[in-house]
Amino acid sequence: MPTLDAEVEAPPAMDSSHRIAALNRNDKPFHVVLAQQFDRTTIEQLCQLADMIRTVGASRQGTQFLLTLLSHRRAMLYFIQPSTRTFLSFTAACQVLGMPYNSVRDRSTSSEVKGESEDDTIRVLSQYFDLIIMRHPAEGFAEHVAHILNDMPRTIPVINGGSGKDQHPTQALLDIYTLFRAFADPETTRIERRYMRNVFSGKTIAFVGDLKRGRTVRSLTYLLCRYPGVRLLFISPPELRIGEDILQYIGRHSVEYEIADDLPSRIGECDAVYMTRLQDEHDVAGESKSIDYYRYALTCEMAKDFKPGLAILHPLPRRHELDQRLDSLPQAKYWAQVRNGMWMRAALIAAIFNVDVAIRDHYHAYYNF
Ligand code: NCD
């Protein structure tokens, strides 16, 4: 069993292709646990599907069509770590697809207080629901849940909505969707596959802040490694550098990267900047109190150096590392990023339940202008 809030653990005693095989069906993600499950084709198909859902969902007739798709399935949101955006965007995504859902957000209301193991709680949930979406403080727990579910006579999928410090794959999907849209030709209303192939080529994407403990950074880096030609810049205090395991992964995928620790002198070369807050809930003994995190804040004073096409992203919640006065700039993409999350999560759930084909057919029948 994984330990609560442990250091990022070495993967279980399986190599990564076996880990991914245990999570996929027919080479497609069934359980969504690791960002490494998503290849370029799957990422780009999901982005297109998210675009189709938002277009279809803009009309009453389209909304009513979407509502029929999963009205015969039920989702459980098992979120026992704090969440606003991920929880609400998953509930909104379920609502878009007409999928009823229920939630457990506090262990003190579950039979775990009577001594039931968490594994048994998961087994029970699998009998009532058709999908488990979960957020958990322990690294590796979502993967462990996938294995529990694989061993049940009735196997249902699990989606990882954030597991300790290690992964947050659905955030990474909505982040890359936001990057595609931010870099899109303003004349293009839809994301074209053709265009997606080269969009990251020659682009510098900077990650800033607590890169050691930020799971969104880890997951998005895995996805960006599918795009050779991108350049990754990791700007953090020396104490909060990105993990060696991620750097090794990047190295294996021949993606160019650089480690830096000064934001103001580097902002001018960035095409996208991904800001993150200090993840001090993971401190063991208040060690991050001694870090001058103000040096890793994006401020109005830096705006003079921004490229006109810069995309500023933040998974939120933010603290002082992202100046509110930047919100009105065209470069600020973080509110769009929140909304993109709802469409992307709807696309992901639709793909897991194989109703993506119906959405594509509907889209092409009514909106393919
Ligand atoms: C992030 C998370 O939970 O990892 N938030 C989110 O899901 N949008 C980032 C964070 O908490 O800093």
Which helices and strands occur, and which strands form pairs?
Blueprint: H1 16-23, E1 24-25, E2 28-29, H2 40-56, H3 60-69, E3 75-79, H4 85-96, E4 101-104, H5 118-128, E5 131-136, H6 141-150, E6 158-163, H7 169-183, H8 193-198, E7 204-208, H9 215-224, E8 231-235, H10 244-252, E9 256-260, E10 272-275, E11 311-313, H11 334-352, H12 356-366
Parallel strand pairs: 3-4, 3-5, 5-6, 7-8, 7-10, 8-9, 10-11
Antiparallel strand pairs: 1-2
N-carbamoyl-L-aspartate binds at residues 85-86, 162, 168, 171, 215-216, 277, 315-316.
Describe this structure in words.
It is a single chain. The chain is α/β, with parallel strands linked by helices and 369 residues long. It has two domains: 192 residues, Rossmann fold (3-Layer(aba) Sandwich); 169 residues, 3-Layer(aba) Sandwich (Rossmann fold). Helices cover 37% and strands 13% of the residues. A five-stranded parallel beta sheet has the order 9-8-7-10-11, covered by helices on one side. It has a four-stranded parallel beta sheet with strand order 4-3-5-6, sandwiched between helices. Strand 8, helix 10 and strand 9 form a beta-alpha-beta unit. Helix 2 packs across helix 12 and helix 4 packs across helix 11. The longest helix has 19 residues. The structure holds N-carbamoyl-L-aspartate (NCD). The site of N-carbamoyl-L-aspartate has 10 residues, from helix 4 and helix 9.
